[in-house]
Write a structure and sequence with these properties.
This protein is mostly helical and 174 residues long. The chain contains eight helices and four strands; from the N terminus they run ααααααβαββαβ. The chain has helices at residues 16-30, 36-53, 59-75, 79-83, 86-94, 96-105, 131-135, 161-165, and strands at residues 119-121, 141-142, 150-151, 171-173. The chain has a two-stranded antiparallel ribbon with strand order 1-4. Strands 2-3 form a two-stranded antiparallel ribbon. The longest helix has 18 residues, at 36-53.
Length: 174
């Protein structure tokens, strides 16, 4: 359960860690701040989810998220605090593999978390059209016209513009 009275449809291009972080940040802003479990719990949960999305997460934090959710469910004074933990619990229950990929493998399966996404060009698909070169704000793509291009990882800002610009699906991410 993600919220009340609505349905959210997502696919493999949506990161569940980022999704949970987004909802927790939204609810953190909506919280009145009167009860400590909600006020402090949402802030701590958001910080943990940001750490995980940035590649700084630890497996112990997943247990901590569940413990904090249990406390909030029991101790919050209103339904906002009680139900605020649902996005975190739901994503942990059904998409634990995504959390583990972020923490253990240092990658975002959906390619949403910039810190964990690496872009590269498949030389077999790249025809050297230079569209990605023209769009790259970091000047991180090199190559001659009509020849396969290469992304210089040290320069890449991980913005994903090259991925969006490529009409030949030659720019990939992992």
């Amino acid at each position: 359960m993600m919220g009340s009275g609505g349905m959210i449809v997502m696919d493999e291009d949506n990161c569940m860690v980022d999704f949970a972080r987004f909802f927790i940040a939204f609810l953190e802003d909506e919280s009145c701040g009167k009860c400590t479990p909600c006020r402090e719990g949402l802030t701590q949960m958001r910080q943990i989810l940001e750490d995980i999305g940035a590649g700084k997460g630890k497996m112990e934090q997943l247990k901590l998220l569940r413990e904090m959710a249990d406390v909030m469910k029991d101790a919050c004074l209103c339904q906002l605090g009680v139900s605020a933990v649902n996005p975190v619990l739901t994503t942990l229950d059904y998409f634990s593999d995504e959390y583990e990929a972020h923490i253990r493998e240092g990658r975002c399966p959906a390619g949403v978390c910039k810190s964990l996404t690496t872009y590269y060009i498949d030389p077999e698909k790249c025809n050297g059209c230079t569209l990605c070169v023209k769009q790259c704000p970091a000047n991180a793509i090199q190559g001659e016209k009509k020849k396969a291009h290469v992304i210089i990882l040290e320069k890449c800002s991980r913005c994903g513009i090259c991925y969006d610009a490529c009409k030949f699906d030659a720019v990939l991410h992992r």
